[in-house]
Design a protein that fits this description.
The protein has 403 residues and is of the alpha/beta class. It contains seven helices and 28 strands. Strands 7-4-6-5-9-8 form a six-stranded mixed β-sheet, with no helix packed on it. Strands 16-13-17-21-20-18 form a six-stranded mixed β-sheet, sandwiched between helices. The protein is elongated, with a radius of gyration of 30 Å. The chain binds adenosine monophosphate and magnesium ion (MG).
Length: 403
């Protein structure tokens, strides 16, 4: 049985080697948050475009601004002012943050380190050449490539594009992810379930996870535990870029997802992973499309999506597979788990005085959505550990939607 790292790498390898170029569309910088860039963005000029003052204060010749000296202030420069004249020897100019430093000046002394009487300015300390000035072109030169294809557009990347006037960005189309739940017991979320039926919560969590991963969910509803119904809906799902099924991959008599996929020509790369929850997770390629059969227990579905489906969406969306958001934390209470499988336990991490501390939450197993709704992470218990003591350092997989 593969470890979760091996299974994840398998997904990255297989999806990576088959993906073609992603389709792209032009998107306004206002609407491009979270999309993957499909073009280069270059600067339209140098940045900063002029020697920029980073403080409110006085532009000076550094060797003239010393504790004993006083300089005559001969004017002021506001942010946005056109600066033509150079600074005459023996003088200073009052200058604001974001304004252009005049030629002749090589330092800005912050106002807090000066005192002024009329036109005369005194300095508390000796100025250093270059202080409080960001030189022209020091952030980027003209026509420099500052954003490249494959980068994900977060707020800083969008601001950078806006700064250089790239108001329309060519972005990769979001991969379309078909979501198909299975199970005779599953009813629509707006139906009243019979006493032994359950609502289709997995399609809702999967659609949310697809969005967070950068994909576009295409919710296909639910297939009955019958090979014909499954086959029909799988065929529909294979029209999208990825197909994700929930349920029907365990050892039960009515777990028919693998057989239905096989009948459609699927090749499987794994059908079990050494994890709990989520052990029966299935990954294969079917008619050129990645297909995932995730176990139907809601928390299993969520965990296996994060581990295995999210990297496939990254790759199909024109990006690199992002690393799992794993961090280290101090275990607050000792715990015991069966060895042999890597456990992902719903847990809560708190930051106490800068130290991350994590505690596993009480839960009833992989059907317990309420426990996960209280969690902000999964505590990762390695397969070779049976007991971990309080105070030990453990790995934590962040729930990136709430942390
Ligand atoms: P399965 O993987 O099909 O054996 O299902 C495992 C458990 O998950 C069962 O208790 C199912 O009722 C439950 N389950 C399956 N599909 C869904 C779904 N779409 N939404 C919520 N729970 C589900
Ligand atoms: Mg089922």
């Amino acid at each position: 049985m593969l470890t979760y790292e091996q299974a994840r790498n398998k997904v990255i390898e297989e999806v990576g080697k088959r993906r073609g170029p992603s389709a792209t569309t032009a998107v306004s910088v206002w609407d491009a948050l979270g999309l993957v860039l499909a073009q280069q963005v270059k600067t339209d000029r140098e940045y900063p475009p002029f020697d920029r003052s980073t403080r409110d204060g006085y532009a000076v010749r550094s060797k003239e601004a010393a504790p004993a000296a006083q300089l005559k202030c001969v004017g002021e420069i506001k942010a946005g002012d056109t600066v033509r004249e150079s600074l005459a020897a023996g003088t200073c100019l009052q200058i604001m943050t974001g304004a252009a430093v005049p030629s002749g000046a090589d330092a800005v002394v912050m106002i807090e380190q000066t005192s002024r009487e009329g036109d005369l300015v005194r300095f508390e300390r000796t100025a250093q050449p270059g202080q409080n000035i960001v030189p022209r072109g020091s952030e980027a030169f003209a026509a420099q490539t500052i954003l490249t294809p494959g980068m994900r557009l977060g707020y800083a990347e969008l601001a950078l594009a806006a700064q250089v006037g790239a108001v329309q960005l060519e972005c990769a189309r979001r991969p379309r992810v078909a979501i198909l739940s299975t199970g005779d017991e599953v009813v629509l979320i707006d139906e009243t379930p019979g006493p032994f039926q359950i609502r289709n919560s997995n399609s809702v969590s999967l659609a949310a996870q697809v969005r967070i991963a950068g994909g576009e969910p295409v919710v296909l509803g639910n297939a009955a535990d019958r090979i014909e119904d499954l086959g029909e809906k799988v065929e529909r799902g294979l029209k999208e870029d990825v197909l994700v099924l929930s349920g029907g991959v365990s050892m039960g008599k009515y777990d028919l997802v693998e057989s239905a996929l096989k009948a459609m020509g699927a090749e499987f790369f794994f059908d079990a992973v050494a994890i709990r929850p989520g052990k029966p997770a299935v990954f294969g390629m079917c008619q050129g499309k990645p297909v995932f059969g995730l176990p139907g227990n809601p928390v299993s579905t969520m965990v296996t999506f994060e581990l295995f489906v999210a990297p496939a969406i990254d790759l199909l969306g024109g990006a690199q597979a992002r690393a799992l958001p794993l961090v280290e934390a101090r275990l607050a209470e000792a715990l015991k788990e069966k060895s042999g499988l890597t456990h992902f336990l719903p847990a809560r991490m708190e930051w106490r005085g800068g130290v991350a501390e994590v505690k596993a939450l009480k839960w009833q197993g992989s059907g317990d959505i309420a426990a996960l709704a209280k969690a902000n992470c999964f505590l990762v218990v390695p397969a070779d550990r049976e007991k971990i003591e309080a105070g030990e350092s453990v790995s934590v997989l962040l729930r990136k939607d709430v942390v």
